[in-house]
Design goal:
The chain is mainly α and 420 residues long. The chain contains 21 helices and no strands. Helix 6 packs across helix 9 (142-158), helix 12 packs across helix 21 and helix 18 (342-350) packs antiparallel against helix 19 (357-369).
Length: 420
């Protein structure tokens, strides 16, 4: 296994960054108990800061070891389209008219089903949010679906007093369902985007090879969690149902959202649309609420850091994949996804030449199945965390509890992908 000093240093820094993501709750505790450096500890406790911080350390390391020009060249050659897209889609999808539109649809369907099936309304809304919104991610992209679902769950679950199992169980199922929910098409899930064009995978191919199995897994995960926690869910009050917003305003927001999704691979165009969208919300503020610019920027910073750090991990990751059988690739990808972004994993796998169709299916299947185990496993996860984190104890999400919450639905996803 050949590697350069830069690659070795990058992998050591990457390993430290991964350990840091598992230690953010410790830094938040330090921030709470320390008066002198509470601001620094709180900064290091922000999971969205972690990879951006260590990416800066990597660039400094490259600058010292190979020169400032090398560090500048390395940074300038990274592709930051995905971080920019996630930033843009979070801002648009998290706007008040879009959230109100989605909430009204779910509430209307939930009311109809709870009357027809004679069930309580809250469990039905909870089930529909965890089931339908991730599937919607196959059409509006996973980051948009994550943003919508997180806001809906915030109002339905997280704003109320919740037990620890409900907090982390919901987050785990949300992350897993969104990770596998974008597989009905070939353009919505980041790990699929990285290989679809290289391997010639169409949306119909994705639907029949992944979509049906993943839809079944999402349904099972949502149903089991709803049955487990239905007694803890608080019935929505009529007065808390969002106000009606004029159809013209909602239509304009939907058009901007559709435009950003359509031009997801053209950062110049979708960033122009985002700036135009921000201008529109400023010009017509009556039915708007503050845009989630801070949360979206933090998530974009996280993913940009992951791009900088992940690009130098191929020296150990690619040879590892080359030596695996398709079955080993599936389970290896599921495990590796927990410590490296699944889009980076599938991209590196696509560089391996002479692979069989079974290898390709196993790599992508494992990558999406393991996408909920950690915050860094799937690009949209930081988006959901940024919206929901403040409702967790001390404003920090335990990496261990998240892993335990995501493990059961991950097993369901694995069984669905392997058996169906």
């Amino acid at each position: 296994m050949n590697f350069t000093p830069t690659e070795l240093g990058a992998s050591i820094i990457f390993a430290i960054a991964v350990l840091h993501t598992f230690s953010t709750s410790y830094f938040e505790t330090l921030a709470k108990n320390s008066r002198l450096h509470s601001g620094l500890w709180h900064l290091l406790g922000e999971v969205e800061i972690v990879f951006g911080f260590w990416a800066a350390v990597l660039l400094i390391y490259i600058g010292f070891t190979t020169g400032l020009d090398s560090a500048r060249e390395y940074a300038s050659k990274r592709n930051f389209t995905e971080p920019l897209f996630v930033f843009a889609i979070m801002v648009a999808a998290g706007s008040k008219p879009i959230l109100t539109f989605a909430t009204h649809l779910l509430y209307s369907l939930g009311k109809f089903l709870h009357v027809a099936l004679r069930t309580r309304e809250a469990p039905m809304l909870y089930f529909l949010t965890l089931f339908l919104t991730p599937l919607l991610g196959s059409f509006i992209t996973e980051p948009a679906a994550m943003t919508l679902a997180a806001f809906l769950l915030r109002d339905l679950v997280y704003k109320h007093k919740c037990s620890t199992p409900l907090l982390f169980g919901t987050l785990g199922v949300l992350f897993v369902n969104v990770s596998i929910g974008g597989t009905l098409t070939n353009f919505a899930a980041p790990p699929v985007l990285m290989v679809a064009s290289t391997w010639g995978w169409s949306s119909s191919f994705m639907f029949f090879n992944f979509g049906l199995a993943c839809s079944a897994a999402i349904f099972i995960n949502s149903l089991i969690l709803t049955l487990l926690f239905h007694r803890q869910l608080v019935e929505p009050e009529e007065k808390k149902i969002p106000e009606k917003i004029p159809f013209t305003v909602t239509s304009v927001h939907l058009l901007f959202l559709a435009g950003i999704v359509y031009f997801a691979h053209d950062p110049v165009i979708f960033m122009w649309l985002l700036l135009f969208f921000i201008g529109y919300t400023t010009a017509y503020p009556k039915h708007q609420s503050p845009l989630i610019l801070r949360e979206a920027l933090l998530v974009g910073f996280f993913l940009a850091g992951l791009v900088v750090l992940g690009a130098l991990q191929g020296w150990w990751l690619q040879p590892l994949l080359e030596k695996m059988s398709p079955t080993a690739v599936f389970y290896g990808a599921t495990a590796l996804t927990a410590i490296t972004d699944n889009a980076a994993l599938t991209y590196l796998g696509s560089l391996v030449t002479g692979t069989s169709d079974e290898f390709k299916l196993a790599l992508v299947g494992g990558a999406v199945a393991g996408g909920g185990l950690t915050v860094i496993a799937n690009a949209p996860n930081p988006a959901g965390l940024a919206i929901l984190r403040s409702h967790f104890p001390n404003g920090a999400v335990s990496a261990l509890y998240l892993f335990l919450g995501a493990l059961p639905p991950t097993i369901v996803a694995i069984l669905a992908l392997r058996l169906l």
